[in-house]
Fold this protein.
Amino acid sequence: MMRYARLAATVCCALALASVPAQACRVRLSAEETLRGAYEREIFSSVAVVTIAEAKYTQPPFSDAHPWSATANVDFLLLGSFEPQTVTFERGWGSAACDDGQPLAKAGEKWIVYFWKDRERGQLVWASYPLEVASAADPMVERSLKLHNRR
């Protein structure tokens, strides 16, 4: 009887663990590969140029991670529409979360923020890159910035 109870408990635990989605990053893609795939799947609802207002570490470092959060002012849109004037995003979660290791942003830096639209929660940050990284990885950014600067 006890043997069957252990077996049943083991099976239940195995099934419960199997239903939990994997949290580790399987393949870390470059910014260019990440953005190209997202454009192909039409993930983005809008893309904005932002200026970092404040950035700070949110947790002590662990493994290869040092989580941080940034609040930024939306300067202008390169694609789509977005109403809020500020946005907050997180980075620094390490390779297990497919984070590419961008260092803590600094106040005044320009970043490009990519949004996706959630039916219930509105527009959410899907990706964020320093302007130089996004410009090199995403041809739309460079083209749109040139058009914006001509105005």
Notes: Residues 35 and 138 are 7 Å apart (CA to CA). The first strand starts at residue 46 and ends at 57.
